[in-house]
Amino acid sequence: MRVCSSSRQHTRLTAAAWLAREAGLDRPEPPPLPRARQRQVVAEPDAVLDDAIVARSIAPPPGYGQDHTIAQSTMSIALDTRPLHGSRGSGFRVEAIGTLASDVSQTASWVKYGGTAVGFLDLNDRERVASLSVTTTFTDVLRDGTIPFTELAHLGGFDPMRGYRPGRLVDRSAAVAGLGYRWPVWIFLNGAMHFEVGNVFDGHLESFAPELLRFSGSIGLESRGTTDNPVQILFGVGSETFGEGAKIDSIRFLVGTTHGF
């Protein structure tokens, strides 16, 4: 069982995430800067979002056009019955994570929390491992104010639903169910496939409906020797909602260390 606390730093609040969700555009968020105890988030003009708001095609997202100074503390706890090293073995992992944040520029505070439960089955004790996972994330206001949309629940990027770019799916809560398979291809590499179904929703999954779910699939390579955060090289796709026909509307190639199963 592991417990950790951390803080992160971002430098600007853009409209990419909210615009992508409302208008169906794929635009990545800027990469995070090194960790710090406090982070300054500065609103900068975004011509694409500004034009969309002026044209009244979308409503301004929460916190847009404002500067935010956010202090936060994050703690996670995990129980994992798999071997500490290597990719072999069956077992399960349960992880919970919580973040307490405050925007001192508007005396607002909120909590972001969630968890993941995963079961692993080594099919023949030769590192051919199938997995089944469920992940949820929630955000709740603790004190009057607005939660900047960059701090809401999100999917895509290096989180679950890898077929979508960072910030494509953003709202008050999120839920994902996933099926994965991993097999050895070389002394240092495993092959990996991920098939996931999920989406973001209103607070506490209030707007959840089967027709609002999306599909994400990815396939590629990942490093061996770790059971938690492997380095991955993946090709992924994401679909429209099932109610809209589930047509593929996102294609991406990613290289990096992911968090998720």
Summarize the structure in short.
It is built from 2 helices and 14 strands; from the N terminus they run ββαβαβββββββββββ. By secondary structure, it is mainly beta. The chain has a single domain, classed as membrane protein fhac: a member of the omp85/tpsb transporter family (Porin, Beta Barrel), CATH 2.40.160.50.
- Flag low-confidence runs: 1-20, 22-47
Instruction: Let me know the average pLDDT.
Output: 80
Largest sheet: 12 strands, mixed
Shape: globular
Content-based structural category: mainly beta
Distance between the termini: 17 Å
The CATH class assignment is Mainly Beta
- The fold-level CATH name is Porin
Helix/strand order = EEHEHEEEEEEEEEEE
Summed up, the domain count is 1
Radius of gyration using CA atoms only? 19 Å
The CATH architecture designation is Beta Barrel
List how many beta strands DSSP finds. 14
By CATH, the superfamily comes out as: membrane protein fhac: a member of the omp85/tpsb transporter family
Number of helices, counting only DSSP H or I runs of 4 residues or more: 2
Helix content: under 10%
Proportion of strand residues: over 45%
Structure commentary:
By secondary structure, the protein is mainly beta. The protein has one domain (2-257): membrane protein fhac: a member of the omp85/tpsb transporter family (Porin, Beta Barrel), CATH 2.40.160.50. It has two helices and 14 strands; from the N terminus they run E-E-H-E-H-E-E-E-E-E-E-E-E-E-E-E. It has helices spanning 16-23, 47-54; strands at 2-6, 12-13, 38-43, 68-80, 91-103, 108-122, 129-143, 153-155, 169-171, 173-184, 189-201, 214-223, 231-239, 248-257.
